[in-house]
């Protein structure tokens, strides 16, 4: 059974949740995915799964719980199915790195930047682009 592309409503829910935590994502290193010593409410390596869990006011033990929340809000079974969708639908995702969205910031950049400086705002805007590419007949989501 093919994996269904999320609806505009589902994408917009995920983007709105990221909007809730953007004001708190302004400290140096807030997207260091391999850093575990950050004292912040998500208490995880700083991937967008951890930030999403914070936006959802969900207490988590592991970033994968936040990643699964994103996936479920998009209508997927879990983060693995979301990553698979991004890999298969790389043109909608925006590059061929979507399968690495919870472990590598290169999933959120165009081209081959060797050391991308990606913020949560950039990731939120990336999701806006995914929405706009996936739902071209719906009202587009603007970047912030």
Query: Helicity, in percent?
Result: 40-55%
| Overall pLDDT level | 83
Which consecutive residue ranges, at least 5 long each, have pLDDT under 50? 33-45
> For the report, how would you describe the main beta sheet?
none
Helices and strands, in N-to-C order? HHHHHH
Q: Based on DSSP secondary structure assignment, what is the total number of beta strands? A: 0
* Form type: globular
Distance between the termini: 36 Å
Count of alpha and pi helical runs: 6
Q: Which class do the helix and strand fractions yield?
A: mainly alpha
3D structure, described in words:
- With 144 residues, the protein is mainly α.
- The chain is built from six helices and no strands.
- The chain has helices at 8-21, 48-55, 63-73, 79-88, 90-93, 120-134.
- Helix 1 (8-21) crosses helix 2 and helix 1 packs antiparallel against helix 6.
- The longest helix has 15 residues, at 120-134.
- The N and C termini lie far apart (36 Å).
- The relative contact order is 0.17.
- The model is unreliable at 33-45 (pLDDT under 50).
């Amino acid at each position: 059974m093919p994996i269904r592309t999320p609806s505009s409503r589902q994408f917009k829910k995920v983007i709105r949740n990221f909007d809730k935590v953007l004001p708190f994502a302004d400290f140096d290193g807030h997207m260091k995915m391999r850093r575990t010593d950050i004292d912040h409410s998500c208490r995880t390596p700083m991937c967008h799964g951890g930030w999403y869990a914070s936006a959802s006011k969900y207490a988590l033990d592991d970033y994968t719980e936040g990643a699964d929340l994103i996936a479920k809000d998009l209508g997927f079974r879990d983060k693995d199915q979301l990553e698979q969708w991004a890999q298969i639908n790389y043109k909608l995702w925006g590059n061929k790195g979507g399968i690495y969205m919870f472990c590598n910031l290169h999933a959120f950049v165009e081209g081959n930047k060797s050391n991308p400086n990606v913020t949560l705002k950039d990731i939120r805007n990336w999701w806006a682009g995914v929405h706009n590419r996936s739902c071209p007949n719906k009202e587009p989501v603007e970047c912030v």
